[in-house]
């Protein structure tokens, strides 16, 4: 009797526990997936709100100008504009330096010297100023003027 009925009941309940445990694991997995989906959707909503605020800001409609999102975007915009000004100034300074360097190169090399050809040639090219210096050291200074002695040849007349 009662022992067999209890054993049967235990087997049935064990089976039910296994089924419920499997169902519980499936629900945990589904819940985890749905949590990730909710997080992704919340991020998407946040992005869209920022875009909407940015669009409103750019179009001049400021529905809630005090919102932290708009303030954050305004700060980012101001920082980006400062960077642009800084980079523009750096570019201008670099252009000026380049012009000076080009003038120096032009005065050193001469006007009809192709730079790409100089860069490609394996020879050691010396600029005009260097060549002038080298030539000046080679040429000895002219001897001081000496009194010319004129010898008159007296011929018989």
Question: How would you summarize what this structure contains?
Answer:
By secondary structure, the protein is an all-alpha fold. It is built from four helices and no strands. It has a domain at 1-63.
Structural description of this entry:
The structure is a single chain. 75% of the residues lie in helices and 0% in strands. The chain has helices at residues 2-59, 68-109, 115-120, 128-138. The longest helix is centred in the N-terminal third of the chain and has 58 residues, at 2-59. The protein starts with a helix and ends in a 19-residue tail after the last helix. It has a domain at 1-63. It has four helices and no strands. With 157 residues, the chain is mainly alpha-helical. Residues 70-104 form a coiled coil.
- As a whole number of angstroms, the C-alpha radius of gyration is 46 Å
Average pLDDT reading: 82
Q: Provide the succession of SSEs.
A: HHHH
Q: Which spans have pLDDT < 50 for at least 5 consecutive residues?
A: none
Strand portion: under 5%
- End-to-end CA span: 180 Å
Got a strand count? Answer: 0
């Amino acid at each position: 009797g009662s022992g067999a009925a209890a054993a049967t009941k235990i087997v049935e309940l064990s089976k039910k526990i296994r089924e419920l445990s499997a169902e519980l694991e499936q629900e945990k997995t589904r819940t985890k997936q749905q949590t990730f989906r909710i997080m992704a959707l919340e991020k998407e909503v946040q992005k869209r709100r920022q875009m909407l605020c940015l669009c409103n800001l750019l179009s001049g409609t400021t529905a809630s100008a005090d919102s932290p999102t708009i303030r954050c975007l305004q700060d980012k915009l101001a920082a980006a504009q400062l960077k642009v000004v800084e980079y523009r100034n750096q570019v201008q300074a670099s252009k000026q330096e380049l012009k000076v360097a080009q003038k120096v190169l032009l005065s050193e090399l001469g006007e009809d010297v192709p730079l790409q050809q100089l860069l490609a040639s394996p020879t050691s090219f010396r600029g005009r100023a260097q060549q002038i210096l080298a030539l000046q050291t080679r040429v000895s200074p002219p001897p001081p003027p000496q009194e010319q002695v004129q010898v008159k040849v007296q011929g018989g007349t």
